[in-house]
């Protein structure tokens, strides 16, 4: 750990800490962490990203785009659906997936925008 990463003196701002601590523990952080954990998989983030670019896709199309089997793709889509990040509809023998709502789309889009910005600065 670098000395630049740590305060040089111990100084706790009690009022600020107390106020923020009470807000932190009234929020559901575990559920949010599970969302990020679900998206931390490379295949699932690819799926989520293409679903921000195209409103709805069938499982076969998604599998072809990410170069995966339909079984693997279905497994990842099922997990995204269980986490409340994606939804599906069946049309005959086809199953179409989309992201659950605009909040999910925004999180994915912002993450990609942030990555593009920070990777430009690193070059």
TrEMBL record:
Keyword Transcription regulation applies: yes
Domain HTH arsR-type residue range list: 24-119
Keywords: DNA-binding, Transcription, Transcription regulation
Entry coiled-coil feature ranges: none
Superkingdom, natural source: Bacteria
InterPro entries: ArsR-like_HTH, ArsR_HTH, HTH_ArsR_DNA-bd_dom, HTH_MetalResp_TranReg, WH-like_DNA-bd_sf, WH_DNA-bd_sf
GO MF, any single term: DNA-binding transcription factor activity
DNA-binding is among the record's keywords: yes
Matches recorded under Pfam families: HTH_5 (PF01022)
SMART domains per UniProt: HTH_ARSR
NCBIfam families recorded: HTH_metalloreg (NF033788)
Protein name: Transcriptional regulator
């Amino acid at each position: 750990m670098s000395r630049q990463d740590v305060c040089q003196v111990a100084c706790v701002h009690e009022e600020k800490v107390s106020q923020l601590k009470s807000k932190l523990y009234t929020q559901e952080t575990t559920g949010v962490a599970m969302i990020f954990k679900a998206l931390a998989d490379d295949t699932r983030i690819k799926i989520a990203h293409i679903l921000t670019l195209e409103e709805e896709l069938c499982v076969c199309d998604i599998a072809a785009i990410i170069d995966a089997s339909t079984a693997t793709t279905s497994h990842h889509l099922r997990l995204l659906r269980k986490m409340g990040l994606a939804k599906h509809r069946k049309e005959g023998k086809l199953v179409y997936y989309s992201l659950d709502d605009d909040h999910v789309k925004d999180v994915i889009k912002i993450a990609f925008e942030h990555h593009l910005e920070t990777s430009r600065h690193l070059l």
